Amino acid sequence: MSEWKKRLKDGLEPILAMADPREKLSAYHDMPYAIFWYPPEEEFPLRNEITLLKTRLEQIGKRVTVISLAECLHNALDSEISKSEFIENERIMGLEAAIETAHEVISVNQPLPDLVAERIPSDATASKDIVFIVRAGALFPIYRTSSLLEKLQGKVFVPAILFYPGVIDGAAGLKFMGILDAEHNYRPKIF
Questions:
Q1: pTM
Q2: What are phi and psi of 162, to 5 degrees?
């Protein structure tokens, strides 16, 4: 069994199976979420394990909501600019301009934290619900997940896990996709 699968099954899953996992996920009452990091090249095996974990948690009475950041990004861009216009702008103005346009859409026009929060069931409770935030790699290099997590503070009140493709750096640092400089200011617990 790979190291990340062991952390998922032996470290995170028992906490998520608790009646109220918030205390074990975070020391902050208004940030009841944590980060589960995995090597970016393990994206497809991780997706399979998430599906299995979701099923196991549902079998013990939990309701698991899976929120795809790729879907959030895609929907936000589609509502702001047509694909053909976006592609044409990238061709004319370059990749950096396209990245900046996408960043502006999910930072200003349709803030990503709002898009995530609105996908959580309105009747969600800490004892029943768990949120999996997946496909964070789709944000690379447009948007850093550290910003997302900070801005989710006060918007998410049920246990949530951000599945983070990256590399651990020191005790609490993470390198997004294993490429960007490590962020060392994550307050959520890292599994």
A1: 0.90
A2: -95, 120
